[in-house]
């Protein structure tokens, strides 16, 4: 289920394409991106629901991508969250940095 209410069939390839675009020119192997996509697909299918929101799928991708490559994460988040301005983008960066520092304490 898309944000605008339209329905589309689940597409593993669309998820992989979005992840690959976000990781373009980053030091992340295709194998790693494929495994990330596998994890997201497994989570989605394990829900056993007929309809899943694209927002939830995007959230799953972001959770996985954050641990793989921070730049790819921010790129994906910028499309997924559709930042309206620089302040919204900076807020996401600040949240990411705070979360990272808490994990290192």
UniProtKB/TrEMBL annotation:
<dbReference type="GO" id="GO:0016491">
    <property type="term" value="F:oxidoreductase activity"/>
</dbReference>
<dbReference type="InterPro" id="IPR003796">
    <property type="entry name" value="RNR_NrdR-like"/>
</dbReference>
<keyword id="KW-0067">ATP-binding</keyword>
<dbReference type="GO" id="GO:0045892">
    <property type="term" value="P:negative regulation of DNA-templated transcription"/>
</dbReference>
<keyword id="KW-0805">Transcription regulation</keyword>
<dbReference type="Pfam" id="PF03477">
    <property type="entry name" value="ATP-cone"/>
</dbReference>
<keyword id="KW-0678">Repressor</keyword>
<comment type="function">
    <text>Negatively regulates transcription of bacterial ribonucleotide reductase nrd genes and operons by binding to NrdR-boxes.</text>
</comment>
<dbReference type="GO" id="GO:0005524">
    <property type="term" value="F:ATP binding"/>
</dbReference>
<comment type="similarity">
    <text>Belongs to the NrdR family.</text>
</comment>
<dbReference type="GO" id="GO:0003677">
    <property type="term" value="F:DNA binding"/>
</dbReference>
<keyword id="KW-0804">Transcription</keyword>
<feature type="domain" description="ATP-cone">
    <location>
        <begin position="1"/>
        <end position="88"/>
    </location>
</feature>
<protein>
    <recommendedName>
        <fullName>Transcriptional repressor NrdR</fullName>
    </recommendedName>
</protein>
<keyword id="KW-0560">Oxidoreductase</keyword>
<keyword id="KW-0547">Nucleotide-binding</keyword>
<dbReference type="InterPro" id="IPR005144">
    <property type="entry name" value="ATP-cone_dom"/>
</dbReference>
<keyword id="KW-0238">DNA-binding</keyword>
<dbReference type="GO" id="GO:0008270">
    <property type="term" value="F:zinc ion binding"/>
</dbReference>
<keyword id="KW-0862">Zinc</keyword>
